[in-house]
Write the structure tokens for this entry.
Amino acid sequence: MSHTAAPQPMTARRSGPLRGEARVPGDKSVSHRALILGALSVGETRITGLLEGQDVLDTGKAMQAFGAQVRRVGEGEWVVHGVGVGGFAEPAGVIDCGNSGTGVRLIMGAMATTPITATFTGDASLSRRPMRRITDPLAGFGAQVTDREGGLLPVTIRGAADPVPVRYRTPVASAQIKSAVLLAGLNAPGETVVIEAEPTRDHTERMLAGFGATIRTEITDEGRIITLQGRPELQAQPVAVPRDPSSAAFPVAAALLVPGSEITVPGVSRNPTRDGFYVTLADMGADLTWTNDRIEGGEPVADLTVRHGPLRGVTVPAERAASMIDEFPILSVVGALAEGPTVMNGVAELRVKESDRIAAMADGLRANGVTVEDTRDSMTVHGMASVPGGATVATHLDHRIAMSFLVLGLVSEAPIAVDDGGPIATSFPDFLPLMRGLGAQIG
């Protein structure tokens, strides 16, 4: 979603039962990593199920700018001819990552230990997000960084000519920080070590191992220690991208809330570092049935059937936050229709996402008649039998805010509008046709 694009207002209205199969798009986190590691490998990487949202497409363009060959050969099917670890060429122009924090941060890591210079930019939303949490550890490898005051985009990185490995403890639970450091460590000699106090999504570790890197993870009193041996020759691999559990959260929540609904989501990721939302829904009494558990592309997947039913508010422990950080906006919508309060702890990281998601959700819920309390690191939503609705919500160029309130509009007494649904295309380009196909009244 470009900051220059015209807003696309959308409205959701109370709907009848949702029925059918929700074939949600490929996992965004895995899609980004498949393109980047394909570009850093030797040979041809064939990717199936790639999310063709704007965020991922921007990462594909960036890999082309760094010298890899990237082409689409069918729906969700892409081929990447890589340049190998340390093989990135200096891009001719600025790397525009649009709305994608994952894309820009992982790409910075991937190029920071190669002696080239690149300048990164993004849309209005991305340009407000902090980058020093990434560029500070990259400087430890020997990269030179120039940024805007406050560590904001645009950022120029001069990659290290003689990189040194680092041992880095992440200051916050962030898979983006961990992944950027590990990707930088690929072209550094010796062992690069990342220590995280709380486990975060492990797609990078899984995929690095799949491409042939020597990487190990240990659980110690210090936390989770990930050690990567530098300068491997990564070998191109086929990558089957599972369906995105964060995208699935929206039709799943809608089916739980709209009376009489029953839907199935096939082949959705069950990665244990990503399942906090579904664990929480089970705690709330949600009717969820998992079947056909299997492994695809190194990731655990299964088919999920969801049925409407009563829900109760719960307290989400802070230690679960990292495994569901993207799902708190839609969880707050579910909480609005649950019995009793839903308390979300350890969510300060939401304040530096595409928007300040705590403030955006709290403001939007209050405008539609829901009682919400929030602090810097928590949010409490008080459930009610019926949400009045009727307001237009500011999305702040945030796709998850837009989708969350459109789901709420399916069960509110009066329609709920969002000021701009355009950013939804960054992660879930088929959101509208998929939801309408299930019976949702969104237009």
Remarks:
- The CA atoms of residues 55 and 100 lie 5 Å apart.
- The chain has twelve helices and 24 strands.
